[in-house]
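Late entry, evening session. Most of the bench is empty. Finally got around to the prediction I had been postponing all week. Sequence below, unchanged from the version circulated by S.P.
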Amino acid sequence: MGERIHFGGIDAGSLGAGMASAMASGNVNRSGGDTMPLNEAARRAEMRQAEIKANFDKRKVAKQVAVPTNDLQVREQLRRIGEPICFFGETIPDRRERLRELLTEAAQMGVDLTGGQTEDRSQEEQDEVFYSEGTQELRSARIKIAEYSLPRAQKRVAEQKRKRVSYEKVEEEDAIVLKLFQGLKTLTSYASNIGDNRPIAHIDFSPDATQLATASWSGICRVWKLPDCTATAELVGHTARATAISWHPDAGKEESMEVDGSAARVVALASSSADATVKFWGSQGGEAISTLRGHMERVNHVVFHPTGQYLGSSSHDMTWKLWDVQTEKEIQSQEGHSRACYGLDFQCDGSLAVSSGLEGVCLVWDLRTGQCVHTLQGHVKQTLSVAFSPNGYQVASGSDDHTVKIWDLRRMKCQYTIPAHSAMISTVRWQPVHGHYLITASYDNTCRVWSNRDWSVIKTLEGHESRLMGAAASSDGKYVATASYDRTWKLWAQDTI
């Protein structure tokens, strides 16, 4: 047996003599040098300690790195340093943390990627508004819209104030509305028509309620005569599915006019399509009067301004545009939505526009200044349709969250939320002229008519075999029309007709 070595309580001389004796006996080997190599467990412990220290130093540096809290600023900074601004499935907090890690690694290597920018910007810089210089045509359009809208708004508000203090007027209107609602309860299917060999995407009544127009996924739009529901014109020209169709406010008043001694067709209809174009048509059909190009992606909706001089169009390129009907020029391209812009409508006075996007937000725009005057937030899913009430201050929006929200622009808030359907709502439309009731069409295969008094259901229209793509009411109060994915459109009328 070798000699056992004890270290405790031994002085240096004794320790040296003991070490020499142990080496001589073979119990201690110092041939490799003065230090002994660490075993595997000791090496792992040392590496773990070094990793903890590195993470501690990294967190210390990360606390000193200024990372923007605004997601737009985070994206801008990622783009500036050459990194992808978004990964699939990445949330806003994840994106901000990724930027923090990149800036931390750069700071550890002594590289400044912030470009001298800090999170502590002044409030003036954060609230700075940027403007693009507009054209002379846009300035002239805004002046015309102001001159048109101000007298109409003054007259409308004066009439509403007069009704509030005149009990006779209130009682008279209540009697008219009660009779109207009783008639709506008798709505039944008057006619069912196969509109095309593809789904019917949109439907709209002419201003005089003598005609009806449909837009189909085949790209063909048709004009139908009422009440016999016969097709009188085909509008062929789109190269992809048609998404919407709208009548000019003056359609039916005159069919032709003389220009330089020759007959010229007047614009009666406008249609939009997935081919990224808008087309103007005459009510008699034939070739398109003109084609408007400017959108980069599919056009989702078109609607005429109350003046009839301008047309609005919304698109998947996240913008809505304002076009001059006479010159056929784009006079405004409005950004603002973070996803596709879908719904669009103008106020009856012509001073405001409201747009809805697939991010679930509706934006109210002042056409006289070009500013966004209010943001309507409340839907939790995409908002496909939005409409101004004829009273001028209520807005209805329909969403994929199965609800309809009624917004009061006077109070700048949601007035009422209607749990309207069991599936996505594709269309919301007010009764023309008076706005006493609201029509909603849904992917649950039904169309519903709602009272504007207490937002109760007046009538549920059932009969389509598939989801409803659109609905509309005639200006004379006689008809309601619905368009469906089952390729048919139906005309609903009261029993008295």
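Two things to note before I forget:
The first strand starts at residue 188 and ends at 194.
DSSP finds seven helices and 30 strands in the chain.
Will write this up properly tomorrow.
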